[in-house]
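Dear colleague,

Following up on Tuesday's group meeting, I ran the structure prediction for the two-component complex that the binding team flagged. I've pasted the input sequences exactly as they went in, so you can double-check that nothing got truncated or mislabelled along the way. The structure tokens for the whole assembly follow below. Feel free to forward this to whoever is handling the docking comparison.

Inputs:
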Amino acid sequence: MLTRIDHIGIACFDLDKTVEFYRATYGFEVFHSEINEEQGVREAMLRINGTDDGGASYLQLLEPTREDSAVGKWLAKNGEGVHHIAFGTADVDGDSEAIRDKGVRVLYDAPRRGSMDSRITFLHPKDCHGVLTELVTSAAPDVADH
Amino acid sequence: MLTRIDHIGIACFDLDKTVEFYRATYGFEVFHSEINEEQGVREAMLRINGTDDGGASYLQLLEPTREDSAVGKWLAKNGEGVHHIAFGTADVDGDSEAIRDKGVRVLYDAPRRGSMDSRITFLHPKDCHGVLTELVTSAAPDVADH
């Protein structure tokens, strides 16, 4: 069962400048940052609020590390903006299989590693009214790395 | 101070079909629906989770009621997808003025009426790294109308 908005993924050309925009404009701070070589992104997670399922909601700012990554290609076509949305669940395996059985294309055969050692998969945007949709099960929700 | 992701605004061509997609695929139910003639939209709010500031996070599904509305023009150009994101605050007036003073364009001179009698304003996406950003103060957070 999907129990929270886990994050909003936002693609940007310059992660440092975008982090600074969110800090200076709204006071949002970086909760975690990492490079995901498989996804081809450098990312910063800004924690916005806690959620009543024991997790939290974040903005995930994404800068491609290479032009041929999914986010790099998306940015070249669309410019900066919201790239995807993510729902949190305690069971990404079960939920993604149930959704696949309903005829929605799930992009990975099995969940892969996401931010903060989460396990993630994506649903095809053409099956989701234009919204690239991620499902995520957190490893250790709501624990900062600094 | 912005204390939650209040909602993700998603533009769609057919509200009823999109509501049914979110219900059938994820089990999300309509918490509130209304027509906002000023904004030129028919909308459904799907409540996803409660937040630790006493509010909640929603998906806001938006179908234009006329082609020349902001959402209608956006849909004609972009197709279905994420139209805007919204942060919740107890003080949309003070926060929007403080953000205006930082040089970010605020689209309304004063906040206007939004979903569920909230008060809202928008920030120019070109000043926000491509993200149309709404600020919202709820009237009565987290109380369903049915």
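The two ends of chain A are 30 Å apart (CA to CA).

Cheers,
M.
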